[in-house]
Amino acid sequence: MWRRILAATSYTAGTAVKLASGAEGEIVSLLGAAMAPTLNSTSAGMETAERVLIKKLIASRATVHVGDVVACTSPSLPAGALIVRRVVAGPGDALVRNLDAAGRERYVLGDDELWVTCDNPARNPELSLDSRDIGPLRFSDVVGRAIWRVEPAAPIGNSDAALEADSKDITGLM
After folding, report:
1. Which residues contact 103 (CB under 8 A, 6 or more apart)?
2. Model's pTM, two decimal places?
């Protein structure tokens, strides 16, 4: 039933939704191809938008996992701006960052840090910011997890732990 309602309704960014689990959600419009092929795989630039359901959550080690697609903000972004990116590393994970001409740097994420990146390997760093540009994010920067593509209606690939946590909401949409 929810699937038909979501597909038949015209949403603007910020439309609130109550999920089957009782959790709050929000429909957001994603522009650009930063998350292709997962999201906006047909978008060549900023001209098309894909609507995605974000399940709001209080982010912590228990609720956000490597592999999840999350909506987040950052002090490096304009006020109120969100990016949707995949979590690729979490607390205690070691990363190697490529520096401009200076070589490489090893970085270990702190207890409250996440590393998020675009899914699109051909991303344009001038248009698609992620942790390679703005550094690690904090759990408090995460506002929710992307769980459902509105059109075409389909769940979004997340970690197994997230799929289990969101199963009631995803089943309610099918």
Report:
1. none
2. 0.81
